[in-house]
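Folded chain entry —
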Amino acid sequence: MPHAIAIPLAPYRHRWLVFAAMLAGEVMDVLDMGILHVAGPALEHELGATPAQLQWAVGGYALAMGACLIVGGRLGDVYGRRRMFLTALAGFALTSLLCALAPTMHLLIVARLLQGVAGALLLPQGFALLRAVFGPDELGKALAIFGPVMGLAAIAGPVVGGGIIAADYFGLGWRFALGVNTPVALAALLVAWRCVPRDPPQALAGEVDLSGAALIAISCGLLVAPLIQGQEAGWPLWAWASLGLAGAGFTSFVRQQRRRVHSGRVPLVEPGLFAKPAFSAGILGMGLFFSAFIGMQLVFTLFLQLGQGYGAGEAGLAALPLTGGCFIGSGLAGGFLLERIGARVLQLGAVLQIAAVAWLWRALDSTGFSLTALAPALVLLGVGGGMVIASLITIIISAVDEREAGSGSGLLAAVQAISSAAGIALLSGLFFGRLAAGDPAGGYRLALAAQALLLILFLLVSFALPVRSRATATA
C-alpha cells in the first residue's frame, strides 16, 4: 500500500534532469511491451521459434511485469524510490543485453521474463519521483509531458520495433531492438545517480509481504501458462486444472491481504478495495478490454507477416492507422467527452471497437486482401480504444476512497499488464491454430470473433461503473 509523498514547496534544482532520466527509463519499460510484435518471422528463422515460444517471448515480459508490479511499488516504499529506481535501471540494462545476446529461444524467454521483473521495479517509481522533485506550480507541466509520451510509448512498440528490425542496424535486426535499451538505460542511470535526491525509507513502511508477492506471481503464471501451452497441446486436463488453481490463487491472495490488515500488518493491496462492487467490476472490465486490445495488436502483425508476407517494417507501418486512431480517441476523451458524459465514454469506445471488428471481418471476406481497405476500420478501432484507455483508470479510481487511490492505481496497472499477457496468449493461440492448417485469414477471423466477445463482455461490465468521476462531478 503506497504511502503519500509530499509535494515540495520549492522545486528541486535538477528536477528536469531527473525528469529526463525517469522518462527515458519509463518509456523503455512500456515500449518493450510491443517491441517484439513484428519479430516473429525473424525469431522463427534465426532461433527456430515455435508458436508457443514466440508467445512466451512477447507475452512473458508483460506477465512478469504484471506479476511483480504491486511488490515493485511496495519496495519503493520500504527501501526508497532512489535506490529502487537505480537498481531497476541497472537491472533493465543488464536484462536487455541478455535478451540481445540470447543464443536460443529458451534463453531469450528467460531473459524477457527477467526484463519484465526489472520493468516492474522501474515503473512504479516514476510518478513518486516527479512528486518528490517538482513544486506544485510545475508538477502539472511535467505530468502534461509525461502522460502523452507514455501513451505514445504504450502503443508505438510495433511501429518502433518494425522500423529497427527493417533497418537491420549492424546486421543485428531484432537483437538491436532489444539491445539498444542497454546504453539508454546506462545513460539514464548515470544521470539519476548524480541528480535524483536521496529519500530515506518511509517511517511506517517496515516490511514487504513476500508471501503475498509469491502468491500473486504464481497465480499469474498458472493463468497464462495454459493459455499458451494448453492450446498447443490440445487443452489437456492439466491446462484446465491450472486455470482453476489460478482462480483459487487470486482468491487466496485477497483473503491473505485481509488477514494482514486484521493482524495490524501492512498489505500489498488495500483489501477494502475488493469490497467495492464498482472497483471489482472495474478490475474485470480492465482485464477484458486489455486482453482484447493488446492481444489483437499482436495477431494483426502476425497475420500481415505470416499470412500476407509483409516484412517487419511494413507490418510496423501498417499499425500506424491504429496508433493514429488511438491518439484521436484519447484526445476526444481527455478533451471533453469524459467531462461531459462520464463513464458513458467507455460504452461509446466499446461500441466503436465492436463496429470496427465487424468492419475488419467484412473487409477480410471481400475478394483479395487490401491493407487500404482495412485502414479505416483500424482507425475506428484505435479511436474506440483511445477513448477507453484515456478514461478507464480515472473512472475506476473514482469508485474508491482517496486513501485507497494509490493502492488501487497500482493494482490496476498490474491487471493491465497481466491481462495483456493473457490476451496475447489467447488470441495469438487461436491464430496459430488456423495458421498451422494453412488458413491465416481464418485464424485472423477467429481472433476477431474472440476480440468481439471480449469487447461485448467489457461493454456489459462497464455499466457497473460510476457514471460520473469525482473530477467530472465537481466540474
Notes: Residues 60 and 113 are 6 Å apart (CA to CA). The chain has three domains: 11-203, 210-265, 276-475. The radius of gyration is 21 Å. Confidence is low (pLDDT under 50) at residues 1-7, 471-475.
